[in-house]
């Protein structure tokens, strides 16, 4: 980890730990913790949960920086929504800063101990791949009784996606209209929403957060909840689960090709990068 920022969820502002707030080694944020219980023949209840850490920081431009830190941290605490720690501009974890306890105060420097609550015990970064509508029409057009403003072709393998992390990865799909009842097959799972997405609208299927969402966003920014229109099968592993994680290894991607979409796989790790 070479750089670290705190991004305030309430205001959108950021403050850096590389100056005028100096975090030095930030050792408390570099560890990893799994929660578990030791059973008769192994471990049970293995999860990564919220945890509290402390870090020492120094501020040379003390008054202005301390006021900014207090304002951003208090705004997120009051809203009950965590801000985001951003490492190296790409790895993110949700966090609050509920305490600042000054240790040393001089005319030129303040040293304070911050308590940071990591909301879910993991750091994430997304890798997005964009797929444009197919023009080859391999397999021939499908015969629909209505004239849609785009062509449907038979399903074919467009590409592959590889997960090398050793663990299933949450995914986010962004489908751009126009399309009707769009679906994408990745590996053995079919991601499908039974809805019409007009031109200029996009459909965001987000399985990366605790509160999974299926939202259509219009070109004017109007948000429509389509969670009830998403096909969820019988849950994870059923083959038609809209929030199915990306399995390890290489998976094929296939679709009818009549719309463009983005596939974002979320890499997760228990600690920020060391390099």
How would you explain this protein's 3D organization?
The chain has 275 residues and is mostly beta strands. It has 2 domains: 118 residues, Beta Barrel (Elongation Factor Tu (Ef-tu), domain 3), CATH 2.40.30.200; 145 residues, Jelly Rolls (Sandwich), CATH 2.60.120. It is 8% helix and 44% strand. The protein has 2 helices and 21 strands. The strands form 5 sheets. Strands 2-1-7-8-9-6-3 form a 7-stranded antiparallel β-sheet. The protein is globular. About 6% of the residues have low confidence.
Q: Under CATH, the topology of the largest domain is which? A: Jelly Rolls
CATH architecture of the largest domain: Sandwich
Oligomer, anyone?
A: single chain
Rg from alpha-carbon coordinates = 23 Å
**Unreliable parts:** 138-153
CATH class of the largest domain: Mainly Beta
Helix content: under 10%
The geometry reads as globular
Q: How many β-strand stretches?
A: 21
Arithmetic mean pLDDT = 88
Q: Taking strands numbered 1, 2, ... along the chain, how are they ordered across the largest sheet? A: 2-1-7-8-9-6-3
Count, helices: 2
How would you sum up the major sheet? 7 strands, antiparallel
In whole angstroms, the N-to-C terminal distance is: 6 Å
Short description:
This protein is mostly beta strands and 275 residues long. The chain contains two helices and 21 strands. The strands form five sheets. It has a seven-stranded antiparallel β-sheet. It has a six-stranded antiparallel β-sheet with strand order 10-21-12-17-18-19, with no helix packed on it.
